Amino acid sequence: MTIIDIQIVSKETIKPAIPTPHHLRNLKLSFLDQLAPPIYIPIVLFYPAKQNVDLLERSLLLKKSLSKTLTQFYPLAGTMREDFTFECNDEGVEYFETKVPCKLVDVTENPDVNVLNLFLPFEPQQNCIESKKQVPLAIQYNIFKCGGVAIGIRLSHLIADGTSVITFVNAWAAMSREPGEVIIPIFEAATHFPPRDISMFRPSIGITKEKIVTKRFVFDKPSITVLREKASSRDGSQVKTPTRVEAISSFIWSRQMAIAKTKPERAKLYAAVHAVNLRERMVPSLPKHSFGNFWRMAIATFPAEMEQDYHVLVSHMRNAISKIDNNYVKMLQDGDRYLKTMKMVSEQFSKSEVEFCNFTSWCRFPVYEVDFGWGKPAWACSPSRPYKNLVILMSDKGGEGVEAWVNLLEEDMAIFERDPELLSFASSKTGK
Q1: Would you give the DSSP letter of residue 418?
Q2: Could you tell me the superkingdom of the organism this chain comes from (predicted)?
Q3: What is the per-residue DSSP string for 379-412?
Q4: Domain boundaries, the chain
Q5: Of 72, 117, 159, 345, whose Cβ has the fewest other Cβ atoms within 10 Å?
Q6: Across the 432 residues of the chain, what is the mean pLDDT of every consecutive 10-residue run?
Q7: Using CA atoms, how far apart are residues 323 and 95, in angstroms rounded to an integer?
């Protein structure tokens, strides 16, 4: 659909209902927070119209419950300082309210990422470091002319990973739905991973100024079943029961490799980088409401001269992810040793031409449980990010299919979206 003209009707600052105690006024970021990219994590939740609902009353309820929620999530109402600490000064959260001159279904039937970005505060390329106020959190409440709403949220990756974002959103929803139901986050990331001097190590965050095109590809349950069987049916296959994330990630990696092989300057090595949640891999495991960045990257590599067998890619992906275990966590906690290892890996990669494909999975996140009191979302998405070769995987509303949000250079997307092998398993339309 064409770009729509959204009207901002109000902008205000929502502060915590209760001032943050003095002893909680400064929050040290962890070593893993220091390594996180300075971007905002986006999410948009769409809710259909409800009969006999006062939209003004709903808006007031959202703001009131947000204020109460910020009492527990107090760093999100603060500002970041240059020394990697958050000043929990209760400055508040930027909150926008808009009117949308179309129906909700006009947006969700065949989503256009350029339109989806309109339901979020800030531009997609907005950088947390370059932001004038270094705002950790901003929210946009969008009201469609049919009475449906979309809630758009951007939360700084410098203080939160995807799991933490969903923890906050569900806590806010719970406070709106049942004021007595309080989710209390745990801000102890720096205890597990003390901050380090990383002035001599600043990895590329992957953001590019080249034109990135983002499109959604839907894998339904039958297609996922076929991919999993395809990965495990070959003689000698090392992965007998690949997960749907392993199967889809490896498949998309193979199609991205096919594009790379058509270029005049061919890579010598292909690398798949998959974000891995550390909470359940630590011994003992962390509480699920541990807030911050608790993830690292599993890196699977594949030499360009080798035959591109799908089941081999799945095996490489599985092996890389399995190495993110408690021993790996111990190396992370010895930050200096981890930095030396990453420096060595970076030097090895720099000696050869490497084509990266980056993945992060939200498939197990309770996104479709976010109920503010008027039902669960009809649809949810985490739209474009200015990253080359980035894939975001999300479960569909039914929980059995997977939506892959693929970010590629414009010229690469032109090839990718017409790939017959890809389209035999996935569709860029709402239904397959």
Answers
A1: T
A2: Eukaryota
A3: EEE----SBTTEEEEEE-TTSSSEEEEEEEEHHH
A4: 7-192, 212-423
A5: 345
A6: 85 97 94 92 95 84 97 95 87 96 93 93 63 79 95 96 97 91 92 88 67 94 95 68 94 95 85 95 94 96 85 92 94 87 77 86 96 95 87 95 95 96 88 37
A7: 41
* Beta carbons of 356 and 390 less than 8 angstroms apart: no
Kindly state the DSSP code that residue 396 receives in the 8-state scheme.
-
Q: Residue 150 to residues 14, 45, 99, 166, 227: CA-CA distances in angstroms?
A: 18, 5, 10, 16, 33
Residue 432: per-residue pLDDT: 34
Q: Which residues participate in catalysis according to the annotation? A: 157, 371
Six-digit token string for 22: 């003095």
Three-class SS of residue 336? Answer: helix
Whether 120 and 42 have beta carbons less than 8 Å apart is answered as yes
N residues, the chain? 432
CATH number of 7-192: 3.30.559.10
* Cα–Cα distances in angstroms (integers) from residue 76 to residues 39, 69, 142, 347, 422, in the given order: 15, 10, 21, 36, 40
Question: What are the backbone angles phi and psi of residue 89, rounded to the nearest 5°?
Answer: -100, 10
Task: Report the relative pairing of strands 354-361 and 26-28 from DSSP bridges.
Answer: unpaired
Asked if residue 218 lies in contact with residue 426, where contact means CB atoms within 8 angstroms, the answer is: yes
Query: Which residues lie closer than 8 Å to 265 by C-beta, 6 or more apart?
Result: 353
The residue type found at 96 is F
Say which residues have a Cβ less than 8 Å from residue 92's Cβ, sequence separation at least 6: 13, 14, 15, 16, 70, 77
Beta-bridge mates of residue 301: 271
Strands in 354-361's sheet, in edge-to-edge order, are: 212-219, 402-409, 390-395, 354-361, 269-277, 295-303
Q: What sign does the dihedral 126-127-130-132 (CA atoms) show? A: positive
pLDDT of residue 203: 59
What would the CATH number be for the domain defined by 212-423? Answer: 3.30.559.10
User: Under a CB-based contact definition with an 8 Å cutoff, are residues 42 and 156 in contact?
Assistant: no
358, 31 Cβ separation under 8 angstroms: no
Distance CA 161, CA 362 (A): 11
DSSP state of 422: H
> Residues near 79 by Cβ (< 8 Å), separated by ≥ 6?
86, 87, 89, 91, 133, 134, 135, 136
- DSSP structural state of residue 219: E
Q: Which amino acid is at 370?
A: V
Measure the CA–CA gap between 174 and 172, rounded to whole angstroms.
5
